[in-house]
């Protein structure tokens, strides 16, 4: 089953926490969540405030979102955990792993970079016309080959599914997400404070967070494992779900 911040049935057993990216929700993690549940690992796939089934007001900064998750974990007496985050979710994971490093066992950052720059035109679009922003994010979020089809999971239209998911976001949510990414600072100093085992999963054809923009971040961590998925864009869980899962299984030694 999926757990959300409103759930009261959480066990303090070092869960793997999955944190989605801009305009998304917990459903982007369906494959790894089901896999690790079958392996009897506790999993927490969160809908962030303003996303999916979470009706709380969307937050506008990475530190505030991290504190929101910490509050939830503390209420449920979860002292130690691991984090898997995609894009904005990867920055949230970094913030958490640096703020309370003794609590985080492992950190997987998928489709990440620092700084996670956001074009001013994209921010303006997200603020004034969310559909234009959704179109841009979807187009830039996939590699060329994935834009024209070829999904390895039959019956799923990747780009259109992503658009539909983002369209479910409440008013102003995508703008707040993008602004939170753009305003996130001190990422390198925060990376140096991380004690967890760190993994980065990057797409070779990622146009939103290209691999070269993660170089300084990689160097700031202590002995990170860097995995590259050839041909994938930014939407790695949709474009190459099985490869992402294989790398996560390595981190959590399935």
Walk me through the structure.
There is one protein chain. The chain has 254 residues and is α/β, with parallel strands linked by helices. It has a single domain, classed as Alpha/Beta hydrolase fold, catalytic domain (Rossmann fold), CATH 3.40.50.1820. It is built from 12 helices and 6 strands. Strand 5, helix 10 and strand 6 (225-229) form a beta-alpha-beta unit. The model is unreliable at 4-8 (pLDDT under 50).
The secondary-structure element order is EHEHEHEHHHHHHEHEHH
The total count of strands amounts to 6
Placed side by side, the strands forming the largest sheet appear as: 2-1-3-4-5-6
Strand content: 5-15%
Cα distance spanning the termini: 19 Å
The averaged pLDDT comes out at 90
Keywords:
254 residues; alpha/beta; Rossmann fold; six-stranded parallel sheet; 6 strands; 43% helix; 13% strand; globular
What's the short version?
With 254 residues, the chain is an alpha/beta fold.
Q: What is the secondary structure topology, with strand pairs?
A:
Elements: E1 16-19, H1 30-38, E2 43-46, H2 62-75, E3 81-86, H3 88-99, E4 104-110, H4 120-128, H5 130-141, H6 144-147, H7 158-167, H8 173-183, H9 187-192, E5 197-203, H10 215-220, E6 225-229, H11 236-239, H12 241-251
Parallel strand pairs: 1-2, 1-3, 3-4, 4-5, 5-6
Helix pairs in contact: 2-3, 4-5, 4-8, 5-7
């Amino acid at each position: 089953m999926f757990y959300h911040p409103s759930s009261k049935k959480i066990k303090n057993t070092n869960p793997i926490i999955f944190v989605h990216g801009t305009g998304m929700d917990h459903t982007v993690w369906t494959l790894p969540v089901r896999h690790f549940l079958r392996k009897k690992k506790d999993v927490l796939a969160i809908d962030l405030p303003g996303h999916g089934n979470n009706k709380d007001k969307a937050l506008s900064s990475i530190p505030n979102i991290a504190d929101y998750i910490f509050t939830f974990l503390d209420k449920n007496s979860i002292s130690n955990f691991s984090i898997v985050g995609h894009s904005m979710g990867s920055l949230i994971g970094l913030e958490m792993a640096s703020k309370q490093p003794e609590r985080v066992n492992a950190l997987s950052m998928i489709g990440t970079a620092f700084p996670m720059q956001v074009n001013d035109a994209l921010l303006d679009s997200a603020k004034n016309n969310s559909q234009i922003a959704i179109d841009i994010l979807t187009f830039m979020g996939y590699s060329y080959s994935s834009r024209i089809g070829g999904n390895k999971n039959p019956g799923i239209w990747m780009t259109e599914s992503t658009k539909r998911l983002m369209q479910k976001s409440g008013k102003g949510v995508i703008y707040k997400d993008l602004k939170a990414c753009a305003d996130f600072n001190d990422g390198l100093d925060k990376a140096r404070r991380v004690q967890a085992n760190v993994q980065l999963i990057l797409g070779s054809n990622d146009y939103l967070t290209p691999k070269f923009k993660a170089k300084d971040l990689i160097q700031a961590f202590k002995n990170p494992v860097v995995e590259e998925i050839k041909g994938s864009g930014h939407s790695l869980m949709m474009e190459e779900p099985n490869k992402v899962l294989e790398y996560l299984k390595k981190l959590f030694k399935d």
